[in-house]
Amino acid sequence: MTDPVLRLENIVKTFPGVRALDGVSFSVMPGEVHALMGENGAGKSTSMKVLGGIYQPDSGDIFMGEKKVTMSGPLEAKSMGIVFIHQELSLAEELSVAENIYLGELPRKSFGRVDWARLADQTNAILKKLNVSFDAKTRVGDLSIANQQMVEIARALTVDAKAVIFDEPTASLTDAEKVVLFDVIADLKADGVGIIYISHRMEEIFKITDRISILRDGQYQGTVVTADTNEEAVTQMMIGRALDLSRNATHHDLGDVALEVRGLSCGKLYQDVSFEVRRGEVVGFYGLIGAGRTEIAETLFGLRDPSSGQILLDGQEVRLHSPADAIARGISLVPEDRKGQGLILGMSCRDNMTLPQVDTLKAGPFVAERAEIDIFDQYRARLDIRTPSWKTQAGNLSGGNQQKIVIGKWLSMQPKVLIVDEPTRGIDVGSKSEIHKLLRELAAQGYAVMIISSEMPEVLHVSDRIVAMYSGRIMRTFTSDEVTEDNLIQAISGIKSGQAA
Amino acid sequence: MQVNKSSNALKSGAIWGFIVLELIFFSIAGEFLSLSDKAFMDTENMLLLLKQSAPIGIIAMGMTLVMVNGNIDLSVGATFAIAAMILLDSMTWTVFAGLGDWVIPVAWVLALAVGTLLGALNGLIVWKTGVDAFIVTLGSMLGFRGLVFMVNGENPTSHLNWTLVDFAEAKFLGFATATWFLLAVTLVIWFIMAKTVHGRNAYAIGNNREAAVNAGIRVGPHMVINFAIIGFLAALSAVVFYSESGSVNPNDGQLYELWVITAVVLGGTKITGGAGSVIGTLGGVIAIQLLRKGLGHIGADTSTVNLVIGLILIAVLVLDRQLNVRGKEELKV
Amino acid sequence: MATMTKQQIGGILARQGILIAFAVFMIAFTFANPKFLSVDNVLSVVRSSAILGVMALGVTFVVIGGNLDLSVGSMMSFSTIVVLDLHDSIGPFLAIPAMFAMTLCLGAFIGFLVGYLRLNSLIVTLGMLSAIHGLTLTYSGGKNMDIADKEGTWFSVFGQGTALGIPVPILMFIALAAFLGIVLAKTAFGRKVYAVGGNGTAATFSGIRRARTVFLCYLLSSGCVATAGLMQASRSLGSQNTVGQGLELGVLAAVILGGASLLGGSGTIFKTVIGVLILGFIQNGLLLMGLQFYVQFVVTWVIIILAVWLDIAAKRGKLWSPLA
C-alpha cells in the first residue's frame, strides 16, 4: 500500500466560545477523490484553513507523505503542492484571466518585465484543457460568475499539485460546466494527485468520490468507502441523533392570509412569483443558490424595488420602499449573512437586539436603557442566549448565540410576518434544533413564517408547505403530505412534475 | 456586462473629452473676455502650460501607483519642501565648496535620496505597524513639515546657481526641461505599471488584497517600493522646480496633496485601488492646469479656480456614480 | 474564553494607554517647568484649544459614522469671514444666525453628497476644501475682513469675555462637549451613528435610515464649525481668508488620538476632548521648554502613529503586523 499524500491527525482548534475542530483525522491517497462532508459549521472550512496555514491548530499534526509539516501560510502550502479552489472567489476583477491564473507567479523577463507571450501561451494551453469560451486577455470582471469559477479552477492546473482542495466548486456551475469540471478532476486523479472534494450534493459525491470522511460539530465521525455506503448512512453520520429531522407532521388550524404576493417580478432576479402565507403557517422556500429566494425576501423587506406585481398584507396592497416601511407594517427579516447584515459586531448584545426600535423606546429625550435591558433579558431567557452580560460585544459570541440575538431582535418587534433566511447556517446542532422548535412554536402562536433554506431536511422538518424555486421562478408548491425528496429535487433542478421518469 | 464595459470605455476617454471641451470653451470665451489679444490655444501658451503642469504632474504619477496599490500619500507636499530645502541648502555647504558646478549633481542626489528615504519610511510604517496609510501619511505630513522647519528655521532658503538655472530654462525640441521630465516620468511609471511584475502585483493588491496574500504575493515590500517611488518623485518634482526658482519657503508645497489627488481622481483612478492609469492621470493634470490658465485667461481670479476645481472633482464623482448604478433591482443598502 | 479576556485586557490597556500617555506628558512637563500646571497656564491652554476642540466635537460624529471631513478648516474660514462682514452690514444680532444658516447649508450639501448620493467622503470633502476656500475668497474679494468699531461691540464676548472668572470660549467648549457627549451616548440618534459606522449594511437591515444619519452628522459638524468660526471672529474681530487653513489636520489628529477608528463605529466625545487636550498641552509644554512651535509637528506625528499603532496592536494581540 502506498503512503497517503496528505494526512491530518487529531487536529484541535478552538476559538473564543467554540471548539471548532475537536480531533479531526483523515488521509488522502494519491489518485483518490476524497469527499469531506458535514453540515454547515461542522468544521470543514476550518479544517481546510488549518491545512492552508491560515489557522494554526492548537494541537495535532499534518503529514505530507512521511514527513510531518507545519503550514505557516498560504504561500508555504502552495510551495508544498497543496492548491485550494476557494468557494468565495478570490480573484482580482480588474486584471486579466492570465494574470489571475498566475497571480503571484507571473513569468519574468529582464528588468522585471512580465513575459506576456509566455504568460498567454501557458494560459491558453490551460484554458484549452478546460474547454472554456474566453481567452487569456479577458478582464475577469467581465466574466460570468461560472466562468470566474473556471478561472479559479484553472489556477490548480498551473502548479505541480500533490493535493487539490475543491470547496463547493459546483455551487454556481451549469450542468455542462460541471461535466468539464469532472473531466478535470478525472485528469488530476489519473496523474496521481490527491483530491479533497467538499460538497453538500450527495449526487455528485456518489458519482465522483472514492471515500467519504464525515465531520459533525468539529468532531471526526469516520471515513467510509463510497461504493460501500449510501446516502442515508452518510446523512445519519452527518446529522447524528441529536437533530430531529423527521417530517413536519403537526397540523393545526391556519388563520387568515397574512401575506400574499401576486405576480411579483424583479428584473432578471425572479419573475412572476405568487404565493401566500397564512397566520400559523410555516412556508419553506427551497432551491439552489441563485434561484431568487433571498431576493424575494429582500423585496418583501423593502430592500429591492419590484419591477411589477403586488404585495398584500392582510389583504391590503402595500408598497415597501425601505426596511423602515416594512418594519412599520409588521414584516421582519432575519437575513442570510449574519455577520454582514444581521449584526453590528462591535456593538453590545443589547444594543444589537433593540436597534430597530431605538426610536420608540424612549425615556424623555433619551433611549430608555432600562426598557432595553428588560427586552434583552426577556429574549435571553426565552431563546436561551448564552452570554456573560448584555454588555458583551456581539462579535465575541458563538455563531448560534449570535443568530439567537438576531432572531430575538426581530421577535421583539412582534411582527406579523417573520422571514428567516438560512437561519441555521454555520451554527451548532444544539442551537439548530432549538431554532427549529422555536419556528414551529411561533407558527402555533399565530405568526406567519417564511423560511428560506438550502438544507432539505430542515425545510422538510419545519414547513407546512414548501415552495420550490428554480432560476427565478416558482416551479411548484408542495403541501407537507405530497412532498418527497425526489419530487422536491426534481422541482428545484428545473424538471417539471410529470416530465420526470 | 455590456453596460459595465461601455462605462469603462467612457470613463477612460472622458478626461480627454473634457480637455477638448475646456479648450473650445476658453478659446471662444477668450475672444470676448480676454484681456490680452493672444489666442488661448497659442502654441507658446500651450507649451508653457505643459511646463507648469510638471511639478504637480510628476508627483501625480507616483500617486497613481500608490493609489492603484490601495494606499494614499498625504505627505507629498511636505516631502517636496524638504527636498527643495536640501537641494538649495546643500549647494552652500562648505564640504562641497571645492566642487564648483559639480555640486549640482551632488545636491540633486542628496535631495532625491532624502525624498526616497522619507517615502520608504512611510511605506515601512504602513507595512510593519498595520496602521492605515491615510493616518500614517497624515501624521508624516505634519512631521515632515516640522523637519523642514527644524532643518532651516522659519526663513526662506535661497541659492541661485546660474548653471542650474540655465539648465532648467533650456528648451529641447521646443519643450522645456520640466516638460521633458514630466514626459519621462510618465513613460517610466507607465512602464512599471503596465509591463513589470511589480506593477501588475500592485494592481492585484489594490484590487483584492486577500487574494494577493493568498496567492503568496508579498504585499509589504511592494507597498514600500511604491511609497519610495512617490517620495522620489516628490523630490524630483522639487528638484525640477527649484532649479529654476532658486528660493524655497518652508511652507511651500502646502496643498500639493490636494492638487495631486484631484488630478489622479479626475484621471479615473479608483479611490479604493485596483484600477487606474498614468495616461488618465496625465489627462487629469493637464485638465487642471488648463482650467487654471483658462480661467486666468478670461479674467477670473484664483478664487474661482479653487471653487471650480472643487466642484468639478465632486461632479466627476456624481457622474461616475450615475454610470455605475445597475438599475432598479439593485439592493438598496 | 481565555482569548476573550485577553482581548478585553488588551482593549482596556489600549483605552487607558491614551490617558497614561497624557499623564506621563503632564508630569514630565511639570517637572521641566513648574508653571506648566498653574491655573493660568491650564486655562490658557484650554482656551487656545477651544476652537479646534469645538470643531473636533462635530468631526467625531462624522468619523464614528464611518466618514471623513477634510473641509472643516476652510469652512471655518468661511464662517469667520462671513460673520465679520455681516457684523458691520446688518449688525451682530442678525449676522450670527445668518452665518449659521449659510454654514449649515454647506454642511447639508456635503451631507447630501456623502449620505444620499453615497459618494466617497474623502474625495468629496477634499473637493469642498478647495471649493469653500474659493467661495470665501470670492465673498471677501481676497481682502482681510475687519470690524470697524472694535471697541464698541458686544460681539467680542464669545472670544474674549469671561463669566465666573472663566473665559467664555472655555465655557462654550465645555457646554458643547457635555451636550454632544450626551447626544452621542444617550439618544437614539447617537446610537444610530454608531450603528451606521459600525456596519452600515446591518444598520440598513435593521430599518435605520443610513443616508439620513450620515446627513445629520455632517449637518451637526457644520454647526460646530459655525460655532468655532464665531469664536474665532469674536476673538480677533478681524481675519484673513485663510484663518482655518490646515485646522482639519489638527482636528482629525485629535479625533484619532482620542481613539476613534477611521473605519467608523468607535470613539466617544470624552476621548476626543482628551485628544484635543493632549495636542494643546504638548504644544504648550514644548513652547514652555523653549522649543520652537514646529517641534510640536514632529512630536504630534510620532504620537499619532504610536497611538493608533498601539490601539491596533492591542486588538490583534501582536505588536507587528503579520502582513508578509
UniProtKB/TrEMBL annotation, chain A:
One of its GO terms (cellular component) is plasma membrane. InterPro entries: AAA+_ATPase, ABC_carbohydrate_import_ATPase, ABC_transporter-like_ATP-bd, ABC_transporter-like_CS, P-loop_NTPase. It is a peripheral membrane protein. Keywords: ATP-binding, Cell membrane, Membrane, Nucleotide-binding, Repeat, Sugar transport, Translocase, Transport. Gene3D superfamilies: P-loop containing nucleotide triphosphate hydrolases (3.40.50.300). It is found in: Cell membrane. Residues 6-242, 252-496 form the ABC transporter domain. One of its GO terms (molecular function) is ATP binding. The keyword Transport applies. The keyword Cell membrane applies. Pfam families: ABC_tran (PF00005). This is Monosaccharide ABC transporter ATP-binding protein, CUT2 family. It comes from Pseudorhodobacter antarcticus.
UniProtKB/TrEMBL annotation, chain B:
It comes from Pseudorhodobacter antarcticus. Part of the ABC transporter complex LsrABCD involved in autoinducer 2 (AI-2) import. Probably responsible for the translocation of the substrate across the membrane. It is a multi-pass membrane protein. This is Autoinducer 2 import system permease protein LsrD. Coiled coil: none annotated. One of its GO terms (cellular component) is plasma membrane. It comes from the Bacteria. Keywords: Cell inner membrane, Cell membrane, Membrane, Transmembrane, Transmembrane helix, Transport.
Automatic annotation (TrEMBL), chain C:
InterPro entries: ABC_transp_permease (IPR001851). It holds the Pfam family BPD_transp_2. Keywords: Cell inner membrane, Cell membrane, Membrane, Transmembrane, Transmembrane helix, Transport. It is found in: Cell membrane. GO terms for molecular function: transmembrane transporter activity. One of its GO terms (cellular component) is plasma membrane. It is a multi-pass membrane protein. The keyword Ribosomal protein does not apply. The chain crosses the membrane at residues 12-32, 44-63, 93-115, 122-142, 162-185, 213-231, 243-262, 269-287, 293-314. This is Monosaccharide ABC transporter membrane protein, CUT2 family. It comes from the Bacteria. The keyword S-adenosyl-L-methionine does not apply.
